[in-house]
Amino acid sequence: MTTHLNVTTHSFTDGHAQAVALAERVAARLRAALIERGRAVLAVSGGSTPKEFFACLAREALDWANVQITLVDERWVPDNDERSNAKLVKSLLLQHAASAAQFVPLYTGAPTPEDGLAIANTRIDALPLPFDAVILGMGDDGHTASFFPGGDHLAEALDLDGHARVLSMRAPGAGEPRITLSLPTLLETRALYLLVSGEKKRDLLADVRLGLDVAQNYPVRAVLTQQRVPVAVYWCP
Ligand SMILES: O=C1O[C@H](COP(=O)(O)O)[C@@H](O)[C@H](O)[C@H]1O
């Protein structure tokens, strides 16, 4: 384990060990919340990296009926689209013991994320924040949630003093239009995890921490340099 400023890195030999460790950690957080407050709230990322973590977490024994799960971001595609983060969560996390959890989607069925923003905002506003845990991922371009380089609402999304809970996001590298929780909303959490794998992402994170990424300006920098919430990076090759 290594700690640098606000960031602690936990390294694992492989994806299975990483997924098991993070699932146990997050389950412990949810259990503590259920004991203390009778409910728990979790926000998770989509993409490919969290698949094994979801499969492990779904089998953890806890009072899932009192757990609400939402997404940190969503691709603006229908729930049955292969690119849908909601589809991933439904097929891997909302299974087994965790099938009793309540899922709060960001996608609303509106034609565009801009059209769906008000409803998505209402859904997030209705959650009993702070989150008990937020699980972020990261792309090879340094995006996290849907904070994409060149995103049309990137500055607003990263503004720590901003009041928007949810924003639409369009960016050259984003594939499809997106919707994302804002950084200050993601930081309203009792625990923040960044789940990443591969040498390329490890090197990118090292560059950000050393301040060597200024030319690329990776959006994940905003998460790693903020001082509100400690960041636990879970990494495997
Ligand atoms: O598009 C997205 O990508 C990131 C990273 O995904 P990965 O496939 O590299 O693990 C993910 O964290 C985000 O939720 C998702 O919308």
UniProtKB/TrEMBL annotation:
Signal sequence region: none
UniProt keyword list: Hydrolase
Residue span(s) of domain Glucosamine/galactosamine-6-phosphate isomerase: 17-227
Annotated EC: 3.1.1.31
Alphabetized SUPFAM superfamilies for the sequence: NagB/RpiA/CoA transferase-like
Swiss-Prot/TrEMBL catalytic activity: 6-phospho-D-glucono-1,5-lactone + H2O = 6-phospho-D-gluconate + H(+)
Pathway named in the protein's UniProt entry: Carbohydrate degradation; pentose phosphate pathway; D-ribulose 5-phosphate from D-glucose 6-phosphate (oxidative stage): step 2/3
Gene3D superfamilies: 3.40.50.1360
InterPro entries referenced in this protein's UniProt entry, alphabetically: 6-phosphogluconolactonase_DevB, 6PGL, Glc/Gal-6P_isomerase, NagB/RpiA_transferase-like
Matches recorded under NCBIfam families: pgl
Main function: Hydrolysis of 6-phosphogluconolactone to 6-phosphogluconate.
Protein family: Belongs to the glucosamine/galactosamine-6-phosphate isomerase family. 6-phosphogluconolactonase subfamily.
Protein name as catalogued: 6-phosphogluconolactonase
Annotated organism of origin: Rhodanobacter panaciterrae
Top-level taxonomy: Bacteria, Pseudomonadati, Pseudomonadota, Gammaproteobacteria, Lysobacterales
